[in-house]
Design brief:
α1 packs across α4, α1 packs antiparallel against α10 and α3 crosses α9. The protein has 289 residues and is mostly helical. Helices cover 81% and strands 0% of the residues. The longest helix is centred in the C-terminal third of the chain and has 29 residues.
């Protein structure tokens, strides 16, 4: 793993983690599904336009099209759509912690359904991650967290897990920025249908909403996804996923700094345990690979 890969990984983790804080601001003043669909429309048009200007083609391989559609639907529409809905009632820090368990779920799914092997270190990491999650969830449930929104978030992480297992097909074959832009448009189409079926769009204009929306379109939405594919193409999905161990720390730190969200001792301990578990799982997967 060279210096450029480390830089890409750190940038991705920071951008990805910041998305929960900006999303929390957005859903305060706008309907979640409508706001997210508009985000994908803007990001998709920008992404495809830039890709076209750089000479990239929308003529993707069949494998790329399959991965683009499945990744765009599962990550952009299902995962983030569910999280945007849930973050109307749960804090950004908690949402980021739940989302950060994705590498643990990927490792577990790869072991259970794809024949991947887990070393003793990986097993210890999975157990540690589950303990950390249980510690935080126990504290939040005691404090009266919305259990429906909590369940919605975990369903969203399951969708993200499935999406992550398809990412290699999307990153192979070039045209990365075009792939990212098209995935955004897939998310826009799916969420537009969901908005028509389940939501009456409402927007309360405000400067925080405008700033958060623009930031979300350009940084977590477009740039972070592009960086992720660059990172996967450079060092592979398993090594790239190692940087997810930073997400619990970045997610709660950004939410505390910008939103003033409080963290209790059990939250901090749980975050550290989850991060250690993620790191152990990813190191074990690299050794097995």
């Amino acid at each position: 793993m060279d210096i450029r890969a480390i830089g890409l990984g750190l940038a991705f983790a920071l951008m990805w983690s910041s998305a929960f804080t900006s999303a929390r601001i957005i859903v305060t003043d706008a309907s979640p599904l409508f706001a997210l669909s508009m985000r994908y429309l803007v990001s998709g048009i920008i992404g495809v336009g830039l890709a076209w200007a750089l000479g990239q083609s929308w003529r993707l391989s069949r494998a790329q099209w399959r991965a683009t559609i499945s990744f765009g639907f599962l990550q952009n529409a299902v995962y983030l759509g569910l999280f945007f809905v849930a973050m109307q009632t749960i804090e950004a820090s908690l949402a980021s912690i739940i989302a950060s368990t994705m590498p643990l779920m990927v490792a577990l799914a790869a072991w259970a359904f794809m024949g991947d092997k887990l070393s003793p270190l990986g097993i210890i990491g999975l157990i540690a991650g589950l303990v950390g999650v249980a510690l935080i969830m126990g504290s939040r449930i005691t404090d009266g967290v919305d259990l429906v929104s909590l369940g919605i978030c975990f369903i969203g992480v399951l969708a993200l897990t499935i999406a992550t297992l398809t990412v290699r097909g999307a990153s192979a074959g070039g045209n990365l920025l075009m792939v990212v832009g098209l995935q955004m448009l897939v998310g826009f189409v799916a969420l537009s249908i969901a908005t028509l079926l389940f939501e009456t769009p409402q927007v309360t204009p405000s400067w925080p909403l405008a700033i958060a929306f623009v930031y979300t379109c350009l940084v977590p939405g477009l740039t972070a996804t592009w960086i992720w594919f660059l990172l996967v193409g450079r060092i592979g999905a398993t090594r790239a996923a190692t940087f997810h161990f930073l997400n619990p720390f970045f997610g709660v730190a950004i939410a505390a700094l910008l939103l003033g969200e409080a963290l209790g001792p059990r939250d901090i301990i749980g975050v550290a345990i989850i991060a250690a578990g993620i790191l152990a799982v990813q190191i074990s997967r690299q050794r097995v690979a």
